[in-house]
Amino acid sequence: MKKATIFTVLTLISIMAKAQYVHSAADQVNSLNWGIIDMIRFKRLNDTLATPIYSEEVKRFENRHFQLTGYMVPMKAGMKQIKFMISTLPINQCFFCGKNGNPIMVIVNADKPVIFTFKTVTVDGILRLGNGNAYYLPPVYLDNARLVE
């Protein structure tokens, strides 16, 4: 009984330590294209509404092929993803708790299902810039995206 209790406590401690994982610099994907996405600013209108502000540098890529490498963040359960988000940080990072900041994510609308992976993927699609409420969905899309092998 004593051994089982010790084992349970050690297991819980290791799970809690993993949940508090802070990313290392090596986990984050950096590229010129992510630098362009990072130029997008947001105007907070009130507690529930924020709109994107696109610089001319960002706007010049709109409606053109654009490639991003990053980590898949599913929007629905399942191994095959048609619509998902891509981020510079892995899914096991805490996007919303404030420990690692809130990296901008891009919504990917794939032309065919992509098998979910924890590894980085590269997608190529048409860059679309939206004007919706950025508190609810990222305003940047890659439409008709394909996985680059």
Which features does this protein show?
149 residues, alpha+beta, 3 helices, globular, two-stranded antiparallel sheet, five-stranded mixed β-barrel, OB fold (Dihydrolipoamide Acetyltransferase, E2P)
Describe the structure.
With 149 residues, the protein is an alpha+beta fold. The protein has a single domain (24-148), classed as OB fold (Dihydrolipoamide Acetyltransferase, E2P). Helices cover 19% and strands 39% of the residues. The strands form 2 sheets. Strands 3-4-5-7-6 form a 5-stranded mixed barrel. Strands 1-2 form a two-stranded antiparallel sheet. A hairpin with a 5-residue loop joins strand 3 and strand 4 (80-87). The radius of gyration is 18 Å and the shape is globular. It starts with a helix and ends with a strand. 19% of the residues are buried. Residues 7-12, 16-21 and 96-100 have low confidence and may be disordered.
Strand order in space, largest sheet: 3-4-5-7-6
What integer is the average pLDDT?
82
Count the DSSP helices: 3
Major sheet, described briefly? 5 strands, mixed, barrel
What is the structural class? alpha+beta
- Spatial separation of the terminal alpha carbons: 52 Å
Tell me the overall shape. globular
Layout of helices and strands, plus pairs?
Blueprint: H1 2-19, H2 32-37, E1 41-46, E2 49-53, H3 56-59, E3 65-74, E4 80-87, E5 106-115, E6 120-129, E7 140-148
Parallel strand pairs: 5-7
Antiparallel strand pairs: 1-2, 3-4, 3-6, 4-5, 6-7
